[in-house]
Amino acid sequence: MSPETLAVLGAGTMGHGIAQIAALAGYHTHLFDVDGDALVRAVQRIDANLGKGVSLGKLDEALRQEALERISTHLDLDEAVDAAHFVIEAAPERLELKCDLLRVPGDALLATNTSSLSISAIARAVPAPERVVGMHFFNPVHIMALLEIVRAETTSTETVDRALAVARRLGKTPIVVNDVPGFASSRLGIALGLEAIRMVEEGVASAADIDTAMELGYRHPMGPLRLTDLVGLDVRLDIARYLYHELGTARFEPPKLLERMVEEGKLGKKSGEGFYRWEE
Ligand code: NAD
After folding, report:
1. Each residue of 162-176: pLDDT tens digit?
2. How far apart are CA 120 and CA 112, in angstroms?
3. How far is the CA of 56 from the centre of ligand 1 (A)?
């Protein structure tokens, strides 16, 4: 097992998941957060996830123990990135914050898990833009196989190759995407979701029938409206507004129905109602 060190900056929903798969893959994993409680919660969540893996027979108890031992938590950023070969930030979606976190000296790979910010803008703000790359994980990190590797104009070929190697070692299936708004996944997923909402708006069919069309007709595991309910209508509206602003095409103009439902607090599963009613 190689002794490489991977630092994860931000220990929330995404950060704890990245730390979990990094430790399981054999990296010495440094998990940093400004909030001590977040670090405690992250380790508890990792412990619980790995414990579930053991109880389902998917993970050996010894491997679980080894993975937990490879994780250290840090409230000091310098200490967390010290000697790290790879740094992956998963902090809140604020450009300045991400730039601050990735000003790491040395030759570490500098990855950001941003879902919408420009990788080029982040790269421009750090002293080594050739080392900056997007590594866009999906939630829940330990389950979702896809990893978008996002290449800014300044990202070196060596950095892309390093990111691909890390992705594979983490057990993910990487795709390489140029740095455009929405990357590959959000752009296509949002286009489909918005069109489905417009079809409900126009009375083409019910939400359930539109979903069934995609599930049975196109073998999507989940229809676009049920998926919108799971992600959150407010989250999807924000992304649609961002893509509409950035790409300027009518395809991403938020449908009135989506805006109205968000105003009414119909946010999908988390609020109990969206295109479907969700019971506890
Ligand atoms: P989150 O709110 O769950 O976690 C963010 C963590 O960052 C928190 O623990 C917070 O304490 C910590 N933090 C705050 N300030 C910090 C600082 N200065 N330095 C280090 N840590 C700090 O957020 P999340 O959902 O994990 O999202 C993190 C990033 O991942 C965002 O860029 C988001 O766009 C992206 N992302 C999220 C998802 C998703 O489904 N949640 C999917 C893909 C990408």
Report:
1. 999 999 999 999 999
2. 11
3. 29
